[in-house]
Amino acid sequence: MSDLRALLIPRRLFLMALFAGFVIWCALSLRWDWLPQYLPLALEGLWRTIWILVVTVVLGFALAVPLGLAQAAGPWYLAAPARVFCTVIRGTPLLLQIWLLYYGLGSLFPQYPWIRGSELWPYLRQAWPYAVLALTLSYAGYEGEVMRGGFASVQKGQLEAARAFGMPRFTIFRRIWLPQAIRNVLPTLGGETILQLKATPLVATITVIEIYAVSSRVRADTFIVYEPLLLLALVYMIIAGLIALMFRWVENRVPSRRREG
Amino acid sequence: MEALLDTLGLAEAASLLSLEPPGWGANLLRGLVNSLQIALGAFGFGLLIGLGGAYGKLYGGPLLRDLLAIYTTVIRAVPELVLILILYYVGSDLINQAATAMGYDRVEISGVVAGIWVLGVVQGAYATEVLRGAIQAIPPGQLEAARAFGMPPLMTLRRVTIPAMMGFATPGLANLWLIATKDTALLAIVGFSELTLETRQAAGSTRAYFTFFLAAGGLYLLITLFSGVIFSRIEKWARRGQPSLREGGR
Asked: Which of A63, A87, A99, B74 could in theory staple to A140 by disulfide, Cβ–Cβ 3.0 to 4.6 A?
């Protein structure tokens, strides 16, 4: 209720009226006649964007857990490679990583006959495995660093108590350490997932047709510049808003005691 | 030296990367200089916007604050690539309309200026949030004391606010600088010949993809590591008057 009342202040009503005017102006005076023709392609692209986002976030997070654990508590021969991996991923542009994997590996694989003959070859000839691999590694690199902080900030006493009760090490990890580490990083995780959403259009440069690539095609086919881009920005804002809402919902469900002192 | 390269099997890579014309090293370095130029310009432009935005958010009227909230939210929710395209077309359209209105011919906008404008607007949204937090972290007594002594606002900004917030703002600004250097790679997609695009052209014409992409990655990594050293020095300098938080805590 209070959210609604905050919107009903005169200046906000004025801003909303301005925005509504802008939307109506867009609808009436810009060209939208291309929309019905490209709508099926756009929906397919939207579906592919979301699919890539979900797959890379899940896989990347699965990789980030051992990366973070190795850095927070591992022996040096595991911690050092994990740290190098995170530094390299975070220190170079994602676009460069995507191109390195797609063009580099893509030009390397055909040289080996056993790869060409293998069952995987029909997939390796397409672009999306490289896109998924690059985005997964990137998310793992950023998240590994976040998870390191998450693991390190779980209070020592909890782990000691679990050990004192004779819990096996894996059970400690599964029941005590990991859940609290994830709870610690939940707010950061939401932000990182939105960053990952904003990274997905880069895969359009290696011929994966997702929503951004569809808008580029509309621009190239019809020479209409602003309309597809504005619609695209709106679509991304809606997805980002949904991600933020989803993470807020999860955060509210997780029982948490604000750290005192 | 050459014998060493030969034994490591890197002789071919070294000749491809050499600075003399058959090698592509000079192209990569030219791209690197372009990238750094844009990153520096965009970072500076973003800082100016950020300082203005932070002041607006903290001390501005309600309408200004709402507008700034919309600016930072929209910029942070839309992918940089889409923003770059929109701002690029909007910027060149506006300049060309202004030029034709004033009776000049259509002008070609240089890639460097376009890149700085586009990335600067994006950086400004993030810088606004970083600087706002840093200004809020200054003990209010310091600003009140400056006002009580009758310091004009600009002098307060220069002598009190900026030096006092430097320590709080440096980690966030270091992050922003790294984002700026990496975001310059996105300008490759609008066809500006910075490091990533030069690398791709070199790799495409020699088919030595790994050599060139790894070399470019090494250059980016060098910038990152070097900036890390510089920024930790700046932070140490900016915090020179503050007691260390290490003791007592934890």
From this structure: A63
Best mutation target, A19, A92, A232, to test chain B (most B CBs within 10 A): A92
CATH code where residue B112 lies: 1.10.3720.10
Which residues does B12 contact at the CB level (< 8 Å), separation at least 6? B208, B211
**Domain housing B155:** 25-238
ipTM of the complex model:
0.83
Opening angle at CA B210, ends B2 and A111, nearest 5: 105
Domain-located, residue B163: yes
Condensed to tens digits (0 to 9), the pLDDT of residues A208-254 reads 889 999 999 998 898 888 889 989 999 999 999 999 999 999 988 88
Residue among B50, B174, B35, B56 at smallest CA distance from B116: B35
Give me the domains of chain A, ranges plus CATH numbers: 51-203 (1.10.3720.10)
The number of domains in chain B is 1
**How buried is residue A28: exposed, middle or buried, by Cβ count under 10 Å (0-12/13-18/19+)?**
exposed
| In a domain? residue B35 | yes
Structure tokens at B174: 């270091």
For residue A261, pLDDT over 60 is answered with no
d(Cα B69, Cα B29) in Å, to the nearest integer?
A: 39
Residue numbers in A near B89 (CB within 8 A): 225-226, 229
